[in-house]
Each structure stands twice: as C-alpha cells, then as structure tokens.
Amino acid sequence: MQAEDLTQEVFLQVYQKIGSFRGESAFTTWLHRLTVNQVLMHFRKRGVRLERTSDASEFENIVETPLQSTRRISIVDRVALDKAISQLPPGYRSAFVLHDVEGYEHEEIANMLGISAGTSKSQLHKARMRMRELLSRDLD
Hints:
CATH architecture of the largest domain: Orthogonal Bundle
Helix content: over 70%
Structural class: mainly alpha
CATH topology of the largest domain: Arc Repressor Mutant, subunit A
CATH superfamily of the largest domain: Winged helix-like DNA-binding domain superfamily/Winged helix DNA-binding domain
Order of helices and strands: HHHHHH
C-alpha cells in the first residue's frame, strides 16, 4: 500500500514539475532524481510525525538499535565523503559528482563538459580510486 501511495505522489510531482524539465539530461535521469527525492521526503516527513517529547526517565533503559547507530555513523561518513570529494582534482570531481551523485550518463557528462565519453569514464574511474585512497586514509 505504501509503494502505491508513493507511486501516486511521484506521478503528481511529475505532472506538476514537467515544465521544469530542461532537457539538459535524459528524461529518465530527471525522473529518477525526482522519484528519489519524493521517496526521501516521504520518509523524512514520516519520521518527524513519529517523534514525541519524553521525560529523561523514559530513556534510562533504552538500548540503541543498529538503525540508530547507523544513522549516527552515516552523518560522520557524509562529512568524510564531502571532505574527500572536495580534495579531488576538478576533472575527477566533476565526473564523480555528475555520474555517481547526480545520476548522469557518460554521454550526457561528455556533452555538458565538452569532453569525450571515454574521458568521462576515465575521470570517474580515477576519481573512485582516489576516493578510496582518501577515505581509507581517514580511517587510519
């Protein structure tokens, strides 16, 4: 039932925002990003609605669940990831962000940056290798 509700919400968003599609990327890329954003917003709103205030005494016997510790770790990971991305050379960073973060295909990246698709693939590969190095160095 929740999946059906989310699908309907996405279709409404597409209907309302189709005019904002500029054609700078594939329609499927735009649709994917809109869908992901809609689902994330749904769960954020749902999480906020489930919160309530409590007395400190209610927390005395609470054991932290894996999900709670994962959320805390993910914030730390996000900071490390942002730091590593900022340390990439400009070409690597552009390819990484456009492909792995924004979801563009190599042909689209090539057109946006005025490079070949092969160069985009190479830059992305080198960016990923550098990211692994930077992130593993932060763990040491």
